[in-house]
Amino acid sequence: MTVQSIMTRDLRKILPSQSVREGLRMMHERHIRTLAVVDDDDQFVGLFGIRQVIHLLLPKAAQMKYGLTNLSFMPDDLGELYDRLLHVGQKPVSDFLEKRDGLLICAPSTPLPELLELLHQSFNTSLPVLVIDGDSNKLVGMVSAWDVLEKLVMNVYPDNGGHAP
Cβ distance 72 to 48 under 8 Å? Predict the structure, then answer.
């Protein structure tokens, strides 16, 4: 089994110039955790998702590379969270995305055991599936731990509509 057989092809994409607010609205409306960020030529640039949103909601002192790790003394006022979200909401997604160079990726031909290892190593819940040809980074899908689980459950447990091996 390869990534191609389980990846999601119906992708939600966002341009780097679109606002964080637009990204959050798309994620909320479609109940998805990660958006693929592509440029005007539909080339993969990076990911914007729940990890970035949570990071944006942290106080500035915790957002720094070697920031505070114990935030129990910080107020947990929702008004402050709303203010932080309103402040970053107008900024472009490009300011906060996880860039392509720092991400683990896979190809449609990646075998399942290799995919499992990549998902295990990744901080993201989804991996971009790219066809790389020279300087081109064509995004053809996304694959998540959920995609793997769904395929396995449907094929292993007969009481869930699947069939026994």
Answer: no
